[in-house]
């Protein structure tokens, strides 16, 4: 692994128009001193006083709001002339047209210009107590070296580089290096299988893959280079694989492979490319209900602005704070709240390589004490897991540095929320339960920002962020205006951070997000709006399961399960899981005359799912059935399967429309046997 160097930095950025630096002055002009101190741009918004009024202004005067914020918080090479050109009904989303900038300059150069020795990254390695710090100067040097290395091996503006790495400084530098030279990046979670990686490489048409010899997490070693070697066998576009060394273990190298040590020969200056606001910044693949992952496209200016604004205001981040998001960079949370948002704000951001329970269940809180983390952002899955280990692992460590606690990836249940607030935060830290998606680019609904004395309701995302106008829709596509109601969650107007399209398939983007409720962005989630107007997310409305914050389409799992030689067909659903939020329940029909022991089948299915997708996608329960409940047209009734698993038999509804109603009784009896075994601890 490349560690910080002591090379001097040569600052060279041409035609850089500086905006306001990340440390915003508390100027007071029109608009109320409190509001202007909170957000300096608000001083120019006539008659706006208070944060609720600021949110209302950001929605009703969207162009004025985003124009002011973009001009002040981003450094432009050329100013934009059009704030937005959007039509959700047609899937047209364009922000800050005419503007040119470079994202890496906004994240690195302007921080180096102000405070080069400020710590940018704290790499909390798997080995506890061995953290490594990188200043903004060192991170810029590393980024420039990687950028020059990529250019020397043929990467050009508009290319897409696939990054298959764990959370580490070189992965961050690789992302920023792509942004610097005008290439897009496609970060793939380092737990994905070779098949899943290959599918994403092919769709992105990458010629370069960046990886490591091995990954280290929770005391276990994963063979990343070996996985990449298998994946690229079916990826004819790949010319080079860049390999960094996380461990001292040597791995087989071919003529195609390039050691990342070569970057040390490169210059520490790499001229940044001037990028249009709507040029592609990155692709990020997320699961869909059709089974084929979607390569969502995020662009330069709008995404960066939204990530930076949400990181600062949702978490009450202030200059000098240490921001600790413990997600993986392979997911959108890592992109927005480990890399782009914090760095654009000049923050010190933590890269957490380990697990919540390695080497013991106190790992998070020992890290908080040692690194003096101020904002902690984690997943409800981890909080529920740690809750079961008891308070002693938390109370063992000093958490007085904490100011804000956040949760991400799925709704947090009330018990976990209250433990998080009472024990971890000692009853003094607000808990921000954030709702957003890969598609939204950043947080859309959260308890903060709000007035300091405003209430926070456990388990609720609550308030829309600036520029976000959520609405609830009924089954007929009409807007539900009353409170104390539930419906499909949509967003009524565009915002800068949202995804622009699906790579190579804009029609699918329109069909998925724009057509269900024309003129609105359909999130795929259901929500409840309380009598006070607060929002609570109730879960997915499509066939997508959320396992420990990882979204996976049921069709994707079924497709892999059906590849098992013994399987005729299958149906997969999500069910409520105490730790993971949702678990995976598979109903499997064997081929006729197929004889196989159940334990052998379970091993085969878990092996093939782990190989083709990832370990987290393996079913928790597998029930062998003779037939699946289907309509007469052949559609599998997953709604019925969910009701059986939820033991909600009174809500099964009219089964007379099924092709074979008797199939449901068989499934009820089979599930009862599994439930009995579970209670007995089998």
Automatic annotation (TrEMBL):
Biological process (GO), any one = lipid metabolic process
- Taxonomically, which superkingdom? Eukaryota
Occurrences of domain AMP-dependent synthetase/ligase (ranges)? 109-495
Ordered alphabetically, the record's keywords are:
ATP-binding, Ligase, Lipid metabolism, Nucleotide-binding
Q: What class of enzyme is it?
A: ligase
Q: Which reaction does it catalyse?
A: propanoate + ATP + CoA = propanoyl-CoA + AMP + diphosphate; acetate + ATP + CoA = acetyl-CoA + AMP + diphosphate
EC numbers: 6.2.1.1
Return the InterPro entries for the record: Ac_CoA_lig (IPR011904), ACAS_N (IPR032387), AMP-bd_C (IPR025110), AMP-bd_C_sf (IPR045851), AMP-binding_CS (IPR020845), AMP-dep_synth/lig_dom (IPR000873), ANL_N_sf (IPR042099)
Among Gene3D superfamilies, the record links this protein to: 3.30.300.30, N-terminal domain of ligase-like
GO CC annotations, alphabetized: mitochondrion
Is DNA repair a UniProt keyword of this protein? no
Keyword Translocase attributed: no
In this chain the Acetyl-coenzyme A synthetase N-terminal domain maps to 53-107
Molecular function terms, GO-annotated: acetate-CoA ligase activity; AMP binding; ATP binding; propionate-CoA ligase activity
The AMP-binding enzyme C-terminal domain covers 556-635
Family that this chain belongs to: Belongs to the ATP-dependent AMP-binding enzyme family.
The protein's name in its UniProt record:
Acetyl-coenzyme A synthetase
């Amino acid at each position: 692994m490349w560690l910080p160097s002591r090379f001097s930095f040569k600052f060279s950025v041409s035609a850089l128009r500086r905006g306001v630096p990340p440390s915003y002055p508390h100027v007071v002009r029109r608009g109320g001193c409190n509001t202007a101190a909170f957000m300096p741009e608000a001083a120019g918004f006539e008659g706006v006083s208070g944060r609720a009024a600021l949110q209302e202004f950001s929605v009703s005067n969207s162009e004025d709001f985003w124009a002011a914020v973009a001009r002040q918080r981003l450094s432009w090479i050329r100013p934009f002339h059009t704030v937005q050109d959007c039509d959700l009904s047609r899937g047209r989303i364009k922000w800050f047209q005419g503007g040119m900038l470079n994202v890496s300059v906004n994240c690195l150069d302007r921080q180096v210009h102000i405070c080069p020795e400020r710590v940018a990254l704290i790499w909390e390695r798997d080995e506890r107590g061995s953290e490594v710090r990188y200043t903004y100067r060192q991170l810029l040097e590393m980024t420039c070296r990687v950028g020059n290395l990529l250019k020397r091996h043929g990467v050009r503006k508009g290319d897409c580089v696939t990054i298959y790495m764990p959370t580490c400084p070189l992965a961050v530098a690789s992302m920023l290096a792509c942004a610097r030279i005008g290439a897009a990046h496609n970060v793939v979670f380092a737990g994905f299988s070779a098949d899943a990686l290959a599918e994403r490489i092919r769709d992105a048409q990458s010629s370069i893959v960046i990886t490591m010899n091995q990954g280290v997490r929770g005391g276990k070693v994963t063979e990343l280079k070996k996985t990449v070697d298998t994946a690229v066998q079916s990826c004819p576009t790949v010319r080079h694989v860049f390999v960094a060394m996380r461990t001292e273990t040597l791995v087989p190298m071919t003529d195609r492979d390039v050691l990342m040590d070569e970057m040390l020969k490169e210059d520490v200056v790499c001229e940044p490319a001037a990028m249009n606001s709507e040029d592609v910044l990155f692709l990020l693949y997320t699961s869909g209900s059709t089974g084929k992952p979607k390569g969502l496209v995020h662009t330069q200016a709008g995404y960066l602005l939204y990530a930076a604004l949400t990181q600062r205001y949702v978490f009450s981040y202030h200059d000098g704070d240490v921001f600790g998001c413990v997600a993986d960079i392979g997911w959108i949370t890592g992109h927005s709240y480990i890399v782009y948002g914090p760095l654009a704000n000049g923050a010190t951001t933590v890269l957490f390589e380990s697990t919540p329970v390695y080497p013991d269940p106190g790992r998070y809180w020992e890290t908080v004490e040692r690194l003096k983390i101020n904002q902690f952002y984690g997943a409800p899955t981890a909080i529920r897991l740690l809750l079961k280990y008891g308070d002693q692992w938390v109370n063992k460590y000093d958490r007085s540095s904490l100011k804000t606690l956040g949760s991400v990836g799925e709704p947090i249940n009330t018990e976990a929320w209250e433990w998080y607030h009472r024990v971890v935060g000692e009853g003094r830290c607000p808990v921000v339960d954030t709702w957003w998606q890969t598609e939204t680019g950043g947080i859309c609904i959260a308890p903060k920002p709000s007035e300091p004395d405003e209430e926070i309701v456990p388990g609720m995302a609550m308030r829309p962020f600036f520029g976000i106008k959520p609405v609830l829709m009924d089954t007929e596509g009409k807007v539900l205006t009353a409170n104390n109601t539930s419906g499909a969650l949509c967003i009524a107007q565009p915002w800068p951070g949202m995804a622009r399209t699906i790579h190579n398939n804009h029609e699918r983007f329109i069909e998925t997000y724009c057509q269900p409720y024309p003129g609105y962005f359909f999130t795929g989630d259901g929500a409840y709006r309380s009598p006070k107007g607060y929002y609570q997310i109730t879960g997915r409305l499509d066939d997508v399961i959320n396992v420990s914050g990882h979204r996976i389409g049921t069709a994707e799992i079924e497709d892999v399960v059906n590849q098992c030689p013994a399987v005729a067909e299958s149906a997969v659903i999500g069910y409520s899981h105490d730790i993971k939020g949702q678990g995976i329940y598979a109903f499997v029909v064997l081929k006729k005359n197929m004889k196989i022991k159940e334990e052998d089948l379970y091993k085969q299915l878990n092996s093939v799912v782990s190989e083709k997708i990832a370990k987290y996608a393996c079913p928790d329960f597998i029930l062998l059935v003779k037939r699946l409940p289907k309509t007469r047209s052949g559609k599998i009734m997953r709604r019925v399967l969910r009701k059986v698993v939820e033991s909600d038999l009174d809500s099964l509804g009219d089964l007379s429309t099924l092709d074979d109603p008797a199939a449901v009784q068989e499934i009820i009896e089979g599930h009862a046997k599994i439930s009995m075994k579970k209670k007995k601890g089998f």
